[in-house]
């Protein structure tokens, strides 16, 4: 029996692919599978062409894969676009009364989806459930799992549960009748611990909750909006204010204000919005106000491809804003990492009084991961503030006291009877404007010293696979899953490839990377961009140049197979 | 313990030009705080960049001196985080109505309980005398070589068009009246604007203290009722031989952001602590 | 050569939702241009980002489809460079009054001769249904979970507070009237605003075509004189059971940017050529 | 007789140092000296402490130097701050009735400046002229030069000329009386061709005029405002509109609009304003709209030191804006270069339809250089537009046609009967929004191909001095003059040092720099910043690391002597 299946739900925006995809994913994870699901959406509300792709597997998966085993084609266009991606042994479910297929292709499985939905469920909106039921049957899975989930999911709407279930059952039954024709597609889950089914940005959002974030301001921008949406739904329960700003400049200044005002705060945007935040990003830097900022990358330049994915903002974020000041850049590769990195971001922001950027992208943001329970036992919130006792003992409060660590005592205004200042000019230790050259130099140096402490806080580059391999793939952020899998495949193909993955990107692990890259392995960067930004950063930091580049910049994420293919082209023989 | 104006004194040296209209405004701010019995550590000043925006450096207080044009969003969120503290924004006319114009519109819409004091000198002072959004027509500068021909932005009318619940104009040459206005603005529950006529002695030879003195008159309750929005709009458009100062509009009925927000009703955010069991519940919801 | 509406047709496929209020606005724009006997290459459309802002892609014309919120400055300078061409800005309410709010204020002040058509659907359509600056109080979204409680920004009142010389409101459900408004706005010499009530069928179940149909009425000259600014401001505040459409204010006396500018008086910049001897003279002045 | 003299005019803002400094500079250059003058101003309108420093020399000078030979101290503070910088043979001119000096220091030369101004000139505002006259006398120069210049300078105001001249003569006479006491200070000019006395930003502004720029939009921000101010004064004569924008976002979008609309256009700002322009910078990139942008650097982060100098925005400008697209960065080092680079910027912007950044800084902007006449004979304006004949022959106009050079035919809207489009999304060849992955990739590649053509347009790194030296100093932008002079001094001191100066910074001259740095010379970067941004860029591009860094980041420019000193500390023995 096979190890995994790829399912795609495809149709026009507004046809509910997200719901059915989400339901399928949940049912599969509850059935005991490992699951990974990605979304591919156009920038429109109705019509066009979207899909939701789910991979179920017996072993952990963190990327999508080909070929498809089940295609749920909700309209004619979906049949035409995706049939060729379906395995010969696969199945294409479509509405036999609304779409047409030509030829004698055994993969086509027509069902009167809409009619069954109306006849069985009582409403055409249940047509997706017919297809869901059929999919379950093809995979040889128990209907009960779906029933349990739908009952929980639509808990408050008995009618909806009823209609969905009847429609799903109709789809299920239609397939079960032809049981043996598709026996090849069946798959059995392993018994495993229950897992969370969670997207990258949901993980960021609940990371923020776990970190005690109480203020979030943003201006909607794909693919970052999901964070604000999620948090807005939880704000009341978490003593949190979520404020939609009039623009991104307001969004970041609001977040900075809230932080100065005394609560943990964050903002989220995409590259275009970050562009507008750049000045205030420097304000956080010079005023030493803690700030957590999610930069959810999408393809640029400018408006680019609003609903698609890319990793082309790394060097921009690293160098953004006039002048020089310390910052932190974290690039999680999975939902689990996104959760913990968010918590870490809040901690580092306050411990070092610097802006911390979580660099995500559309692919990470909207993809669903199967994750073991996020463990809160290690999560402690330390605000790293000046203690009341110390405050009371102070003769004069120097907000920007020059210290060895570069970190100065931070207090919350109106508490402790101190006056707390923050300033955007170069300033003296009291926060007053200065033009003195010596003070200027001292302040630049003080801020810069934080880099040393920060370097000690970050994790080392992660080694993947054999450390003594002939080749090395080097990647960061959301390509993690696809790259790791590609390494596995290449090794199976007899090519000795290891990997290095950077999650904590800045301060850069210069020593470690220099060491890693001094082993004489031929290396290639794997990046979802056109210029190899991590590779360029590595060159800057270590003076090591890659032998090859595996780049993709068409707005779509890597699949492991593509990396394998490109690797063979770029590197083998080098 | 009584508060004295000296409590707000600091020894940082002032970089304004001698005779600048900013000095009496600084005094009025301090005096208003004294009159309200607020102590330096109890009040938060927020400013952007410009001559006016340096004000917080010139007195003892909590302050956030941020970016040109961006004081309002910072102040809004400070108040959200710390919703018991009086928050006062000090801005220039370029700062507030030029670079920061969008925030001005939306801060008024939010009706957050902060006070905006704009030092309106009709000029970019710190950058050496270019026209600002409030500069009168015909004013010649090195950039506006043929004189300004854009319509001056009337901050009072705009605020009123957005139904700002407290709209006032002060004059730097009348410190007592200005102090009273600022005081009332601070105590007002909701967004309050005090636009202050401020002579710039270095770049504006027309609008001197005397020029204003010859023209300003006080709106006195009794003669003028600041409760009718349309009347206030009309009054805000009066400019020329006679220039009204005082409270143009006051609407205590309109609920502030703090009063609306379901979360802020229970007190300042900064005083609450996270209950980790709630996070546990959220995590559970992903299974 | 007569111009037909088909001349403006292109074959790029439209990504708006079926039934969206943007369709009739697209038609009205085209029809107004046809009525004005303008051909596709003679007119320049400028837009930002949003559902409305996609409009220029859906017809033949010169267009500059720039950034979210930034259409007005682009359009202003296009007109300055090429001051014979009709320039039309297409914006959404978020685009124009949110992200672009500051440019809105100052474009009105400049009184450049362009026409701004705002598709005002009271919502961020393209980003899936968050509140916009014009959203009515109480409207619940996934972000505004307790309903909007900010004061809606009334674009007409703001424009009038800035003395915009041409201020009108159209309704997407009345294409003929809208066409006439757009036409007049384009021919008007100066900045003209046509704010259009546009139902969003995907995210606003309240303000449907029917909802508006039940409420809108046309301001007819004769009954209403669009020459009194204060009356226009008052009228602009009418909203509820009855919603006026039409021209609220028209002031042909106010000089446009082009009329003021000493350089533009001699014709479009784009047609002039540099006389290098002038540069030589400038260089001489440094000796 | 000595080769050069350093003169400083110091006082409070509002005391007219700029005028007197400017007049002195002009008179000196007309007398036949080489001159360099820098300004040091606080961020305030009145009071505080400013100075204007003029170096006159027999050979070309492009940096300031120490010690001072003449200090005109217009207030007490100036005496206290700067006396120690004055050479033992030097002179300190001060108002003997308003200021006090202590001790028996032969350098002090008190004159009743104000009283003489009133008595002789009839107004206290002429006190600076008294000091100017005295300075001339100390240097042994002819009074006639001053007289001629003042007559020309105040041409329309006979009263002012009269008053100034009388006051100056009083100062002159007072010194001449004590003739021999200060004979050491005298200096004779060489006879040389007449030269321009011009600041870096004046040169940028007239470069723009020479390039046919017809639109300039900006929001005032030091140190960039001087460009707008200058151009505003010339606009009427040059069919130009200079528009003060409501903010920097408007400024850049206005400039882009004017460019699309059909005229050459520009904007200018400093780092903080550029931060706000970042999004539209990418708009110029993706819409392929020509744009010339001056980024006049000042010390950050955020507000930083508004009136001072730094070179810390290089990596920011290089990577600014989401996504990846070609751009050009030019960093002139003198007024002459600023003039020609501005003209080149306009040409490249239109030839390649890319944004071009002129990276200046406060020091370059406000410093006055002595320059031979700018020659216009090589300046030709080519708009690089689609020709009318070709336009008329087109079947369909593809604004973003995919070409080998990456450059597509650009036309002006409303001309030629074409519809001209510009788009901020990823688009097809017609400029319509596309989400197609293949088109996306093709468009990214098309835009990227411009880099190749651009690389061929730029000048190579400039070698300074001996190419086979033991050491190499590497610098860029405004440090040029000080670095070149430091190299000269070091060689005179017997240390073998050469230099490399980058003026055209991007596309980077990777091959040439790799070659230069492969010679085994020990090299150090000379930069007015804290992190060595050019050094980091070189590492990224060539994988060569410097042996040392000579950095200054206190908001003040380098003097040659400082580089020499730091070089000896950092490098000698390495
Ligand atoms: C982003 C940005 N742009 C421009 C500036 C330069 N700048 C400083 S103050 C100022 C305007 C000052 O005018 P106003 O706000 O009226 O204040 P005033 O000095 O008149 O009190 C400008 C343009 C800046 N600091 N930041
Ligand atoms: C700088 C920036 N911020 C945010 C966005 C995301 N965005 C695109 S359209 C839009 C709002 C759309 O609302 P509106 O302007 O009212 O247009 P509509 O779609 O309703 O026609 C937003 C926030 C963006 N493209 N650019
Ligand atoms: S320039 Fe004008 S506003 Fe600024 S300090 Fe001087 S007088 Fe005051
Ligand atoms: S979301 Fe609303 S505004 Fe956008 S296209 Fe659909 S109906 Fe129209
Ligand atoms: Mg001002
Ligand atoms: Mg909208």
Q: Which percent range describes the beta-strand content of chain B?
A: 15-25%
Question: What compounds are bound to the protein?
Answer: thiamine diphosphate, iron/sulfur cluster, magnesium ion
Give the tally of structural domains of chain B.
Answer: 1
Helix coverage percent of chain A: 25-40%
Distance, first to last CA of chain B: 58 Å
Main beta sheet of chain A: 8 strands, mixed
Q: What would you say the CATH architecture of the largest domain in chain A is?
A: 3-Layer(aba) Sandwich
Annotated CATH topology of chain B: Rossmann fold
Strand order of the largest sheet of chain A: 6-5-4-1-3-2-14-7
CATH topology of the largest domain in chain A: Pyruvate-ferredoxin Oxidoreductase, domain 3
Structural class of chain B: alpha/beta
CATH architecture of chain B: 3-Layer(aba) Sandwich
User: In CATH, what is the homologous superfamily of chain B?
Assistant: Thiamin diphosphate (ThDP)-binding fold, Pyr/PP domains
**Corresponding CATH superfamily of the largest domain in chain A:** Pyruvate-ferredoxin oxidoreductase, PFOR, domain III
Order of helices and strands of chain B: HEEHEHHEEEHEHEHEHEHH
Number of helices of chain A: 19
CATH class of the largest domain in chain A: Alpha Beta
Count of the separate structural domains of chain A: 4
List low-confidence stretches of chain A. Answer: none
What would you report as the Rg of chain A, rounded to the nearest angstrom? 26 Å
In CATH, what is the class of chain B? Answer: Alpha Beta
Task: Characterise this structure.
The complex is a heterotetramer, with two copies of chain A (574 residues) and two copies of chain B (287 residues). Chain A is 39% helix and 20% strand. By secondary structure, chain A is α/β, with parallel strands linked by helices. Chain A folds into four domains: 190 residues, Pyruvate-ferredoxin Oxidoreductase, domain 3, CATH 3.40.920.10; 174 residues, Thiamin diphosphate (ThDP)-binding fold, Pyr/PP domains (Rossmann fold); 67 residues, no CATH class; 109 residues, Rossmann fold. In chain A, the strands form three sheets. In chain A, strands 6-5-4-1-3-2-14-7 form an eight-stranded mixed beta sheet, with helices on both faces. In chain A, strands 9-8-10-11-13-12-19 form a seven-stranded mixed beta sheet, with helices on both faces. Chain B has one domain: Thiamin diphosphate (ThDP)-binding fold, Pyr/PP domains (Rossmann fold), CATH 3.40.50. Chain B has ten helices and ten strands. In chain B, the strands form two sheets. In chain B, strands 2-1-3-4-8-7-10-9 form an eight-stranded mixed beta sheet, sandwiched between helices. Chain B has a two-stranded antiparallel sheet with strand order 5-6. The model of chain B has no long low-confidence stretch (mean pLDDT 97). The site of one magnesium ion has 9 residues of chain C, from helix 3 and strand 5.
């Amino acid at each position: 029996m096979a190890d995994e299946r790829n399912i795609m739900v495809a149709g026009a925006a507004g046809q509910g692919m997200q719901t059915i995809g989400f339901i399928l994913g949940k049912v599969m994870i509850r059935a005991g599978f490992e699951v990974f699901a990605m979304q591919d959406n156009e920038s429109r509300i109705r019509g066009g062409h979207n899909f939701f792709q789910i991979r179920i597997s017996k072993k952990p998966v963190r990327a999508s894969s080909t070929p498809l085993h089940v295609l749920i084609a909700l309209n004619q266009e979906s049949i035409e676009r995706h049939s060729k991606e379906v395995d010969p042994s696969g199945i294409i479910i479509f509405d036999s009364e609304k779409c047409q297929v030509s030829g004698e292709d055994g993969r086509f499985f027509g069902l009167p989806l809409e009619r069954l939905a109306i006849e069985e469920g009582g409403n055409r909106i249940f047509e997706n459930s017919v297809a869901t039921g059929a999919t379950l049957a093809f995979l040889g899975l128990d209907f009960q799992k779906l029933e349990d989930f739908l009952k929980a999911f639509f808990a408050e709407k008995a009618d909806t549960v009823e209609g969905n279930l009847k429609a799903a059952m109709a789809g299920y039954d239609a397939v079960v009748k032809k049981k043996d024709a598709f026996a090849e597609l069946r798959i059995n889950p392993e018994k495993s611990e229950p897992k969370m089914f969670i997207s990258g940005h949901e993980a960021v959002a609940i990371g923020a909750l776990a970190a005690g974030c109480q203020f979030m301001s943003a201006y909607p921008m794909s693919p970052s909006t999901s964070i604000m949406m999620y948090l807005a739904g939880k704000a009341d329960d978490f003593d949190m204010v979520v404020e939609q700003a009039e623009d991104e400049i307001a969004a970041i200044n609001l977040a900075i204000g809230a932080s100065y005002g005394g609560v943990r705060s964050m903002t989220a945007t995409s590259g275009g919005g970050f562009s507008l935040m750049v000045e205030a990003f420097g304000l956080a830097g010079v005023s030493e106000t803690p700030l957590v900022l999610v930069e959810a990358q999408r393809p640029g330049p400018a408006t680019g491809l609003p609903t698609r994915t890319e990793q082309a903002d790394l060097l921009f974020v690293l160098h953004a804003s006039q002048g020089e000041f310390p910052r932190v850049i974290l690039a999680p590769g999975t939902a689990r990492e996104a959760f913990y990195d968010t918590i870490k971001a809040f901690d580092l922001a306050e411990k070092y009084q610097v802006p911390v950027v979580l660099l995500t992208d559309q692919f990470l943001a909207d993809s669903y991961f199967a994750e073991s329970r996020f463990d809160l036992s290690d999560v402690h919130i330390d605000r790293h503030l000046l203690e009341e006792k110390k405050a009371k003992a102070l003769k004069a409060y120097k907000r920007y006291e020059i210290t060895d660590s570069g970190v100065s005592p931070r207090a919350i205004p109106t508490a402790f009877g101190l006056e707390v200042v923050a300033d955007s000019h170069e300033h003296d230790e009291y926060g007053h404007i200065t033009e003195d050259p010596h003070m200027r130099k001292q302040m630049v140096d003080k801020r810069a010293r934080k880099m040393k402490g920060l370097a000690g806080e970050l994790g080392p580059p992660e080694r993947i696979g054999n450390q003594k391999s002939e080749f090395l793939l080097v990647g960061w952020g959301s390509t993690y899953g696809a790259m790791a899998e590609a390494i596995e495949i290449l090794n199976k193909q007899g090519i000795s490839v290891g990997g290095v993955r950077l999650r904590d990107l800045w301060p850069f692990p210069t020593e470690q990377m220099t060491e890693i890259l001094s082993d004489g392995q031929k290396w290639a960067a794997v990046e979802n961009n056109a210029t190899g930004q991590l590779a360029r950063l590595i060159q800057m930091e270590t003076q090591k140049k890659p032998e090859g580049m595996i780049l993709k910049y068409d707005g779509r994420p890597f699949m492991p197979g593509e990396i394998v293919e490109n690797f063979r082209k770029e590197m083998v023989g080098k | 313990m009584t508060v004295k104006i000296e409590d707000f004194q600091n020894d940082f040296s002032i970089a304004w030009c001698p005779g600048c209209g900013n000095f009496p405004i600084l005094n009025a701010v301090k005096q208003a705080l004294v009159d309200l019995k607020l102590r330096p550590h109890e009040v938060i000043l927020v400013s952007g960049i410009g001559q006016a925006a340096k004000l917080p450096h010139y007195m003892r207080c909590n302050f956030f001196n941020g970016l040109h044009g961006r004081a309002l969003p910072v102040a809004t969120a400070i108040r959200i985080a710390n919703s018991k503290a009086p928050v006062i924004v000090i801005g220039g006319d370029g700062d507030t109505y030029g670079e920061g114009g969008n925030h001005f519109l939306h801060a008024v819409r939010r009706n957050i309980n902060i006070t905006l004091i704009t030092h309106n000198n009709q000029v970019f002072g710190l950058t050496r005398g270019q026209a600002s959004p409030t500069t009168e027509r015909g004013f010649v500068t090195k950039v506006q070589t043929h004189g300004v021909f854009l319509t001056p932005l009337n901050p009072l009318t705009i605020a009123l068009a957005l139904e700002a619940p407290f709209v006032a104009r002060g004059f730097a040459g009348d410190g007592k009246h200005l102090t009273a206005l600022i005081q009332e603005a601070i105590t007002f529950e909701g967004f309050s604007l005090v636009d202050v006529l401020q002579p710039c002695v270095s770049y504006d030879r027309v609008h001197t203290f005397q020029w204003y003195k010859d023209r300003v008159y006080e709106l006195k309750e009794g003669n003028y009722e600041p409760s009718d929005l349309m009347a206030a709009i009309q009054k805000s458009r009066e400019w020329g031989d006679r220039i009204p100062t005082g409270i143009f509009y006051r609407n205590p009925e309109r609920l502030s952001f703090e009063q609306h927000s379901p979360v802020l009703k229970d007190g300042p955010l900064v005083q609450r602590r996270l209950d980790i069991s709630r996070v546990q519940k959220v995590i559970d919801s992903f299974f």
